[in-house]
Here is the input.
Amino acid sequence: MNNPGLPTSSDHTQVSIQMLIRGNHTIGRGLLIRGHEEFGETSPRLFDRLVRVVADFWLLWRLSRSGTNNIDLYHRMLMRGGDIDGRSIGPYCRRPEAGRCRTPHPDAVAEDLRWILRKKGGIASREDWIIKASELAHGATCGRPLLQYAFLGAYHDSVVANPPKEFIRKGASGSLHTLTPARFDSGLTVEHIAPKIQRVDDTSFGDQIYREGRVQRLGNLTLLPKRENRILSSKSWREKQKYFRVYSERDPEERRRWIENFSLDPETANLLAQRFVPFCGDLAQLRTREWNETHVAVRGKNLAGLIWERFAPSLRL
Here is the structure.
């Protein structure tokens, strides 16, 4: 899917487009091309909304299951028309034998996608989605663009809460800008808080995390720039906490005082002194000697709730 220079009016929409492109979500191309033909020049805000409907449905669908689960089939039904559990959906892109295609107004498309999410995705409520999204091994099955999109949305306008009861919560509008094209393009990587492979000599990560795929769950993941992520390789939870403290510190002088305690080359030390990373402030505030399965579960549900609140409104959920 190529970016045709679409007239967008929000950071959310621009990041949505980049996520769809980099995540190779080509099945949504037909619907977006049709929408661009209909609204691109005359009603760009409607096209904006349609982009977010397609992208945010894909996120809610994919993060609530372990695979794609016939999403291509349902998108084709949207394009050519079809019936799902007694309800007609589409057609938006292919003219049926009789009649005309429907206009892909974002409200109409969102209504059809809500039906698919409910009837074929088993998502009847926010609580249903949070349970599914927080208990699946997304670190192993979801691509980085989709996980970036999810975390950028969860942390946008968030504040650190009171770990371990609640890690982050919604803050005031404008308090933290993460769902932006610049952030999405900044080379963020997925960090596993408890490392993917358990070290027998490191008891700072609970054994239960390494059972039933919990190491790959949402609550055990965060985003870090590549170099900051590499620094944490093979470090214990207590060592990681110190670096999370530096990464998330907003005061440059305070950051330098912390950095003096580390053995770093001058280039890396200078980088850490300047670059603020907002995706680990909650982890820095967790005052425990161990990162365990309870933390993964609580943080996973916390993040899933914020992801839902950020992206579900596009579909009027």
